[in-house]
Prior knowledge:
One of its GO terms (cellular component) is cytosol. Pfam families: Lysine_decarbox (PF03641). Its EC number is 3.2.2.n1. The chain has 8 helices and 7 strands; from the N terminus they run H-H-E-H-E-H-E-E-H-E-H-E-H-E-H. By secondary structure, the protein is of the alpha/beta class. It has one domain (15-227): Rossmann fold, CATH 3.40.50.450. Helix 4 links the parallel strand 2 (79-82) and strand 3 (103-108). Helix 1 (3-12) packs antiparallel against helix 2 (16-41) and helix 2 (16-41) runs parallel beside helix 5. The relative contact order is 0.13.
Amino acid sequence: MTSEEKIRSAFENKNWQEIKVTDSWSIFKIMAEFVDGFEKLAKIGPCVSIFGSARTAETNKYYEIAVECGRLLTDRGYGVITGGGPGIMEAGNKGAHMNGGKSVGLNIDLPFEQFHNKYIDHNKLLEFDYFFVRKVMFMKYSQGFIVLPGGMGTMDELFEAITLIQTGKIARFPIVLVGKDYWGGLVDWITNTMLGKEHNIHAEDLNLFRVVDTAEEAAEHIFRFYDKYVLKPNF
């Protein structure tokens, strides 16, 4: 019987003691993922994360933009971190790998669409069961985010980064959204409704991210930021 089946059986039979024991032992699995991630990523050096949909085809213009982002970043000595899967993630790793740069993949075990791509350096692939542990790795070891069109996971990573910077929980780093057509409606809603109508954020919060259309603009925003600020750990 798998761990998941044991937990399901415990709930069905209302065996609360067994559920409590299972929860306690899961702490060690969580700790192991943190330790493995910290040990491996601390040695890699400055990196930029590239986010986007796992479903993006190679023929999509945003796939090509992500490849070019990877190339431009590694030209300047940055490594590239992605979620390790297909689509935009594959494209970012591909650009870094083909250019001889550091190509890192933080893969997550999912039942349907996630499998690690072939462009990740063999010694820079990490596997995760827990989304929240994986997100800590992105936040701690990325000196910038380049966010291409994606789904719920991409939104989750984007808004977590903005929230942590906004609240001062991590040091500020550049966040670039690529694709004005894709992100325009969201940015309009944030500006007109979240800020303008409901006053749920401050006007300066709009400066926490930049919207561009090309790989060159995205990479240049990262480079300009660190021409002004010193590279340092996020937390």
